[in-house]
Amino acid sequence: MNEGARDDSGARSARASVPPPPASVRKAADPVAPSAAEPPLGPLVELQSRLSDGRDPVVVLTAGDAAARASVTAYAARLLRLRAAAIDAIAPRPGARARDALRIVHVERADRGDLVDALALALDAAIVGQRVGHVAEVLSDALRRGRTSVIVRVDEPTAAASGWVALVLRELAAALAPLDDRGSPPLARLVFVAPPACATIGALGSTPIALGPRLEPGETWAWIEVLARSLGPAIDGRAPSLPSLEGALSRPELRAALREVAGEDALAEVDRAIDVRTSESDGSPWVWLRRAVAALARGDGEEAASSIVRAEERADDPDARRDVGRRWAECLEACSPRERLRHAREATRRALAGADAEEAVAWAKHAVRAGELAGASDADMAGL
């Protein structure tokens, strides 16, 4: 069966393939007969519902601390693996491997181009150039044609929903949304796990599912039913946090016992998270930016200067080029004022040569500040 083709059974499997919510919360999840006395869906049950709903291919989860984000990533990974197994049971793919159903990527910030590189790496998508429309089209096409879902875990919040990455994410979400009620959604899902105040992820336009510090008692049942139906109601009555549940699962003796009955892949949801630093694509500006930063840390100024030039050359979108410049300016703050002055002057010349007046002015201001701290002479500052 072709990856891009789907029959009626495959479309049906895109919905209702995640295990249903437990009976204790099923009534609250019924939109037909809502009751004012019923509490709203908890985050785990809402996630379960939205992943099984074919109308919502992009889902955003927020959690305030790193442990909660890691734990909800593991929970979402189990749901997506169960969903993929249900779809494959209805519409099997010859030669498909269980590990192909899901990719997990982990990035520090959502406003850096590394995130887009990581998505391309996870989906085996070839990006040529950094134009926003092209990048979004390549990624959305990979998600629509295949069945590989992707979870992106973000560590740090971002203050502004602007820049090249935000534009790409906005275009990607629009490309994945069904055109109308009859539109055919992708079988794959794209899930973002981020801090609450992450404006770049907010550019997706998806209503976030917020994970609080503790779970509702009924929510523990959702976790138990996805992990194993045999854990019983005692855990539910304690209302533990999701990190504490995942911590219990990570105990060596329990992991060893589960491996014996379920195999090596049963607990590998987060173990296979893709490290974006393994990407070495010479066509990516973000790879060259990372090399420039590494050279700067080694004290190799010439290599750093050469690498940042290549990064700027490959950032053929104006917003991408400015994002490269902003990140480079942040990295230069750790250098001595004299070295910052040298790099800032070179960046100013490159911006002028590229007819980017706004970027040239910004770098000239960086150079003036560095020159004042370095005690540069009037002759050194004359060109600015």
3D architecture notes:
- It is a single chain.
- With 384 residues, this protein is an alpha/beta fold.
- Helices cover 53% and strands 8% of the residues.
- The protein has a 6-stranded parallel sheet with strand order 5-1-4-3-2-6, sandwiched between helices.
- Helix 3 packs parallel to helix 4 and helix 6 (132-145) runs parallel beside helix 7 (164-176).
- The longest helix is centred in the first third of the chain and has 25 residues, at 66-90.
- The chain starts with 7 loop residues before the first helix and ends with a helix.
- Mean pLDDT is 80; it is low at 1-17, 22-37 and 229-234.
Beta-strand content: 5-15%
- Structural category is alpha/beta
How does the major sheet shape up? Answer: 6 strands, parallel
By DSSP, the count of extended strands is: 6
Compute the CA-based radius of gyration. Answer: 24 Å
Order of helices and strands: HHHEHEHHEHEHEHHHHEHHHHHH
Whole-Å distance between the termini?
63 Å
Contiguous uncertain segments of 5+ residues: 1-17, 22-37, 229-234
Q: What would the average pLDDT be, to the nearest integer?
A: 80
Please estimate the helix content: 40-55%
Q: Please, how many helices? A: 18
Shape estimate: elongated
**Main β-sheet, spatial strand arrangement:** 5-1-4-3-2-6
